[in-house]
Write a structure and sequence with these properties.
The protein is an alpha/beta fold. The protein folds into 2 domains: about 230 residues, TIM Barrel (Alpha-Beta Barrel), CATH 3.20.20; about 140 residues, no CATH class. The chain has 10 helices and 10 strands. The strands form 2 sheets. Strands 1-2-3-4-5-6-7-8 form an 8-stranded parallel beta barrel, surrounded by 6 helices. Strands 9-10 form a two-stranded antiparallel ribbon. α3 links the parallel β2 and β3. α2 packs parallel to α3 and α4 packs parallel to α6. The longest helix has 24 residues. The chain is elongated and about 95 Å long.
C-alpha cells in the first residue's frame, strides 16, 4: 500500500442529504461542493436522479451537476435507479453514473421495486445509452453492489451471490463494480475475503472502490482492510452525515405474534393510557405500543393448558350488554383464538368491544388486574407465613385451628 494514491469520493451531498428530512438550499449545496473541491477532493457524488416526490431533498440534482461541472478537475458523480434517471444524468453531463444493485433481492424489491433480472436489464439499457454518446462525452458506469455484506431483511447474504452478480454487471456493460456495506454489518475479515473473491471474477482494475459505514464502529478497521487488499477509492461523507444508514426494516406480517411471559390478556389499543400484565400483575402507565393487539394472538406457552376453554362457551354477561360479542352457545371470536387452536385466556371483553377483540374500557381491565393481584398476593403470603410460629394467633396451633390445652400436672 506504500506509495499508492488513495482517492476519497465524497458522497455526502447524495447519501447524507437523502437520509434527513430537511431540505438544504441549493446555494448551500454549491458552497459545500466548492469548499470540498478547494480542499482537494477530486470526486463528489452530488446527487441522485430520482423523482422529486420520493426524495425532494435531491430535486435540484440537475442544477447541482451543472454547477459542479464548472469546477476544474472535479469528477461529478450521480446515482440513478433506472434508465430514466440515467437519461437525465447524461443530459445533465455527469462524469460518472452509479446504478445500485442490491445483492439481497428482498432489499432490491423494497428499494427500487425490481428483481435482479430486471435491474440487470436496466443496467444493459443504460450501458447502451452511454455507448450512443459521442466519444469523450461518455460517463463511466459503475455497478454498486448494495447489501453485499449483509441485509436487515434477509440476514446473511451468500458470497456466491455477490460474485455472480458482480460478473453479471460487468457482462451487462459496467466499467467497474463497487462493494457497498449498506447496513454496516461488515467486518475486516469479510471485507478482505469479498474483495479477493470479486476481483477474482472481474479483475483488479474493475473493482477499486468500496462504500463502508461505521454503524458498529468498524468503519476504519474495514477501510484499512480494504486498502491492504488494494482498494484505491473510499467513499466518505462530510461530518458522518451518512454514517447511520436506515435501510428498509422487516415489515410486520399477518403471522401470529409471539407474546412474552407477562402476556397481556386484554387487548389494549396502541393509544391506551393503561396496560395490564398477567400473571406478574403489573400496571404500566406507558402506552402499550410494543404488544398492541392483533387479529390473532396465540396463548403463550406459560399459560397454554392452564386454562382450557371449549370452542364454544356461554357468555356470562347478558346478550344485550355484549356489544355484539359471543353469547350463550355462540363461538368465541375467531380473533381471540390462535391459529393452532390453543385456547385463549378465559376472559370475555367488556361491553363496547369490537369484534376484532380490541376494546378501550381500560378501567374494567385495571379493576380485574387489581383484584387478581390481591388474590395472588394473599395466596403467596399465606404460603410463606404458614410455618412461622411468631405469626400464630394466641390459642391456635400451626394449622390455625383452636387447641384445647390441659393444665400441667404438678
Amino acid at each position: 500500500m506504500s506509495g499508492t494514491a488513495i482517492e476519497i469520493s465524497e458522497v455526502g451531498p447524495r447519501d447524507g442529504l437523502q437520509s434527513i428530512s430537511a431540505i438544504m438550499p441549493t446555494e448551500a449545496k454549491k458552497a459545500w461542493i466548492a469548499a470540498e473541491a478547494a480542499a482537494g477532493v477530486r470526486e463528489i457524488e452530488v446527487g441522485s436522479f430520482v423523482p422529486a416526490k420520493i426524495l425532494p431533498q435531491l430535486a435540484d440534482t440537475a442544477e447541482i451537476v451543472a454547477y459542479a461541472r464548472t469546477i476544474p478537475g472535479l469528477t461529478v458523480a450521480v446515482l440513478v435507479p433506472n434508465l430514466k434517471g440515467a437519461q437525465a444524468a447524461v443530459a445533465a453531463g455527469a462524469h460518472k453514473i452509479t446504478i445500485p444493485l442490491s445483492v439481497s433481492e428482498t432489499h432490491s424489491l423494497r428499494n427500487v421495486r425490481r428483481t435482479h433480472a430486471q435491474m440487470l436489464e436496466e443496467t444493459a439499457a443504460i450501458a447502451a445509452l452511454i455507448r450512443e454518446q459521442p466519444e469523450g462525452q461518455r460517463p463511466k458506469l459503475e455497478g454498486g453492489l448494495s447489501t453485499a455484506f449483509g441485509c436487515t431483511l434477509e440476514g446473511i447474504v451468500p458470497e456466491a451471490t455477490v460474485l455472480s452478480l458482480a460478473e453479471a454487471l460487468m457482462a451487462a456493460g459496467c466499467d467497474e463494480v463497487g462493494l457497498s456495506d449498506t447496513t454496516g454489518y461488515a467486518n475486516p475479515a469479510q471485507v478482505r475475503r469479498l474483495i479477493r473473491g470479486v476481483r477474482g471474477v472481474v479483475g483488479d482494475v474493475a473493482c477499486t472502490g468500496v462504500h463502508l459505514h461505521n454503524t458498529r464502529g468498524l468503519g476504519l478497521a474495514n477501510a484499512l482492510a480494504a486498502l491492504e487488499e488494494g482498494i484505491t477509492t473510499l467513499d466518505s461523507s462530510l461530518g458522518g452525515s451518512a454514517a447511520a444508514p436506515s435501510p428498509p426494516a422487516r415489515r410486520a406480517t399477518s403471522s401470529p405474534r409471539i407474546w412474552p411471559s407477562c402476556w397481556r390478556p386484554w387487548a389494549m389499543t396502541p393509544a391506551s393510557t393503561w396496560s395490564a400484565c398477567w400473571p406478574c400483575v403489573r400496571l404500566c402507565a406507558r402506552p402499550c405500543r410494543m404488544w398492541s393487539c392483533t387479529a390473532s394472538r396465540p396463548t403463550p406457552a406459560c399459560l397454554r393448558g392452564m386454562f382450557p376453554v371449549p370452542p364454544t362457551a356461554p357468555d356470562p354477561r347478558p346478550r344485550e350488554t355484549g356489544g355484539g360479542q359471543a353469547g350463550p352457545g355462540r363461538p368465541i371470536e375467531e380473533g381471540r383464538r390462535s391459529p393452532g387452536g390453543a385456547a385463549p385466556f378465559p376472559y370475555w371483553p367488556p361491553a363496547g368491544a369490537s369484534r376484532g377483540g380490541t376494546f378501550t374500557d381500560h378501567g374494567h381491565a385495571a379493576k380485574v388486574t387489581l383484584l387478581s393481584g390481591l388474590l395472588v398476593i394473599g395466596l403467596i403470603l399465606r404460603y410463606v407465613m404458614r410455618d412461622r410460629p411468631e405469626h400464630h394467633l394466641p390459642g391456635r396451633g400451626p394449622t390455625g385451628r383452636r387447641e384445647h390445652r390441659m393444665s400441667p400436672i404438678r
